[in-house]
Every structure is written in C-alpha cells, then in structure tokens.
Amino acid sequence: MAVEKEILDNGIILYKNKIEDANTIGVSVAVNIGSIYEPKEFRGISHLLEHMMFKSNKKYKSYQINMGLELNGGIANAFTSTFLTAYFVETIPEGFEKVMDILFSMFENDKYDEKEFENEKKVVLSEIERYENNPESKLHILIPRSIFGDSDYGDPVEGYRETVSNISLKDLEEFKAKYYTPKNMFILIEGNFNNKHIEILKKYFEKLDGEYTKLKNPIISKGRDIIEHMDTKNQIYFSLNYELEKDFYLKALGFSNIVSGGISSIVFQTIREKYGIGYHVEFSISEIYPDRLIMSLIIPGFEIEKEKILDEAINELFYKLKNEDLKEYIDGRKKRTKLIYESKKKSIFWRIKKDIIYIYLFGNTLEYIEDYIMKIEDLDIKDVVSKLKEGRKVVIYPEVTP
Description:
Layout: E1 4-7, E2 13-18, E3 25-31, H1 45-52, H2 62-71, E4 74-80, E5 85-91, H3 96-108, H4 114-133, H5 135-148, H6 161-165, H7 169-179, E6 185-191, H8 195-205, E7 226-230, E8 235-245, H9 249-259, H10 266-274, E9 282-288, E10 292-303, H11 310-323, H12 327-344, H13 348-362, H14 366-374, H15 378-387, E11 392-398
Parallel strand pairs: 2-6, 7-11
Antiparallel strand pairs: 1-2, 3-5, 3-6, 4-5, 8-10, 8-11, 9-10
C-alpha cells in the first residue's frame, strides 16, 4: 500500500503507512532542524533540546513521561541528525491516546525547569567527553571534518564542550519556539492504525501553532586528511572518506548492503580475511545531509605493523569492485539483505526510526528502499566506485610517548 499524505490545518504534514499484519502502532514526529542549521556558537543545541524534551513540562513531570509511556504499552526514543530531530514511539492500539497525550505535551511545552536543564546539560557534556575519549567514537566524529573542514557540515551533531556549556535555558527555549513550529514539522504513523487513531493524533497535534522560520544556508568548507594521537591501546583507527551527491544516496545504500556487512562481504573477505587487518571492517554511508552524503571505509582498530600493507589491501579491494564480474556475488548478497530486512521490518519501533528519514529524503518507506536494493546490478556497484574520488583519511595513532 502506498504511503498517504495529508496536510493538517496548521501545516504539519502527516504521512500514513498502513501495515495490515502489524499488532502495534508507531508514530514519529520530526522537526526539520539539526546541527547544520544551528548558530555555530550554539553547536549541539538541537541535541540538547532532544534530551530536554523528555524532562518535566507543563503537564507532566519527567518520571510521569517515562512511566506513562511504558505503563500504557508504549516505548519511546529520539535522535538528532545533521538536518533532522525526530521523536518516535511504538504503542499497543489501546494505549494510543494516552501515549499521544504525553507526546503532544512534550511539543506543546515552552518552559523547562532550570535545575533539570543544568543536570541534563552535564549529562550531554559527559556524553561528548566519552565520545572524544573513545578512539572509535572519535574516528566517527572526525569523518565529517575530513570532508567539510571547520564548517556547519564538518562539526559534530553533539557539538563541542565549549558550545554546549555556553547554552543557557533561555537560549534553548527560544530555539524551540523558533523552530518547533507546525510548518517545520512532519509526522509519520505506521502499523495497525485506523481512522480513530488518525483523529486522535490530529486532535492533539493540530493544536500546535507558531510561525515558520526560514532555515539558514549552512556553510560548507573544504576538508583535509586528519592525523591525531590518543590512547588507542597500541592500535590504529582508520577511515577513508568520500563525498557523494544526494542523487547517489539510493545507490550508495545499495552499495553498502552489497559490499559490506557480514563475513561473506567482499570488504570483510579482502581486508580482514586476506590481509588480517582489523576485526570489524565496513564500507558504508557514515553521514547524510539534505543534499549530500559521506561514504567511508572504516577500520576501527588494527595492529600498528599492519599499516605497511594497508594501501595494498585497499587497492586490491577497489580493483575487485571496479574490474571483477560480481553478478553471482551480488545475487547472493541480495538474499542476505532480504533476510535482514524481512526480519527487522517486523519491528515497528525499528522501522519507524528508519522510515522517518526515508520519508524526508524520498517521500517513501522501507519497502521502496528494499525494492531498489533488490534491483542493484554490477554496473550500479561500479558506478558508485567511479564516483569515489579525492578520498580524505582520518587516522588515529597511539599516543607518542616521550
């Protein structure tokens, strides 16, 4: 069944994806705001606000939000990306109205408790510190900077300790009032819903108001190779990163599923099995933006002595992708991909998180993506490889001892 689209009276776009054999209902409320649209001095404010949305509001205390969701058969989570902040819930049909009431209260609220704000800011700062002190997380943080430099596109979604520390409660509340408005939002409902559930959702979310604020034009710079040293337990953390246009997103997603993931992948068999480099190796989309994406070959942790054969291993991988006949291999990998998708898409909670991004990018859901991947051919893989030019490296070496 095709995804239906409706515009609510206040301008919120509602997407409806009926899944007849589902037993639950998923709802994701997304705001078109993420790190690339933030003022640079407030980098990380979208992510901090995501945390604060689950704190006390005018109707519910923080514990009432969490308890109320679970005790009405619901689970919730959220994420912040470069361009989107999304909040998603899954609930049994009979708990739907109460869960919508709680979810709506989070969006309607315009004031937060100062003490809760300061406590949550400390939580976010601790999260940032953990990322910066973990070599694998640090590797992922530096990938966008290697492509886009010191810019809106190059900065981490979570922000920096300095920028997050400088955000006041007033800054956060003003940011929410400015961007969490109906014409900057869209909602996806999927699963076993009926007209009654749609009317309940509309009853709540049509109450939201606020003027549309035009998003800023993000700044993009040129990146460079990045070399850093930190405590890596005497290992090297490595990524080779490429920029692709948004038009290649579907092909890149298909490429990721075909060449990477699992022991049968050509990436694993070449880098790990033949050359013995690394434990977990992947070649996939590492970051997405509204108009482009980053593809990365990531090897998070391998012995220092293996660095001398790293270029040889990567060159062999690219040679195979460019020159070998991969038809039989691709057919087999499609079967693996189908198994994974068939298993995972039964989870409404898993798919609502995926589908809210696919709705934003393509106006469609998981089935559309799966169908595209099943049609991937050898020429498509080689087409993606031909576009992987001017790669930028991020290499994290062990600390240099005096």
